[in-house]
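input
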Amino acid sequence: MKRLVAYLIAFLFSQLALAQQKPQYTQYILNNFILNPAIAGIENYIDVKAGYRAQWVGLDGAPVTSYLSIHAPIGKNFLYGTSTSVPQGGGSNPNSRSYLQNYMASEPHHGVGFTVVSDQAGPISRTDANLNYAYHIGITQDLNVSVGVAAGMSRIFLDRSNLLLENPNDQAIGIGNFDNFKPDVSAGIWIYGPRFFVGASAQQLLQNPIGFSDDPESYNLGRKVPHVFVTAGYKVYLGDDFAAMPSALLKVVSPVPASIDLNLKLAYKDRFWVGGSFRKNDAFAGMAGFNVGSFMNIGYSYDLTTSGLNTVSNGSHEIVLGVFLNNRYKVSCPQKSW
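output
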């Protein structure tokens, strides 16, 4: 009986969460590309990241999210005298003050990318696949601006066999499994320099209808709602080897209240980092990660739930694995992605 009640709670919560229809992440600071297409091509290598998040562990039907993202610069301008170029062999550590002396703004260049995200919550699953494009340009010696767009398809699937209904013939749900395939468009802007970034993006701009009824004319359809993300961060050098990187994210999804994340990341050289995050009325999180040579980095976070779900949840786990392909300058940690 306890398992059944937990499942019903999870299902009802997933329905309420349709106002916030996109997955939630804790380690977006390691991969803002998953939120903002303007980041495509910001580094001078092919950036590949895979993420997995198990939310509210211990609660039946709780959200489970996984994703794969790939982006890279194209053309030749980014190779010579740009903010993404560093000397052969790795260049200066971006977490040291000396990095400021060698920094140069970007020559105009393009970036392209791809994302696929899978999210499962109770009987509802969602898969999004998008192609991304961005254009980067240096405005001053240490100021860059990029704009980006993403377009693709979204699939929302309802597995009716996993529903427990008081009325099995409820026409608001229908009599079979339902697939909704809809186009999707996102856009964003990213302003960045050697010590800061500011970005804004919007997802689900098309606001397509969502519904699982056999009689959509008699039952109101749900609708995708835009998700707006505004973020900023600043790098504070604490010496030759350490840097602190506070950042914040404002998420606006009507009609639910705006959500605010506050983050702090402490990095030692280009080797490892630790951090923490606070999400208002939701969770505290601890994070840690390290870089493996010039090929790979790994990050892990644990969210301690502070909302009412803390009575049935054992928290949330998230892991992100990054791989640097075609890393010709042997960069050992991202120069622009914090």
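quick obs: Residues 186 and 203 are 4 Å apart (CA to CA).
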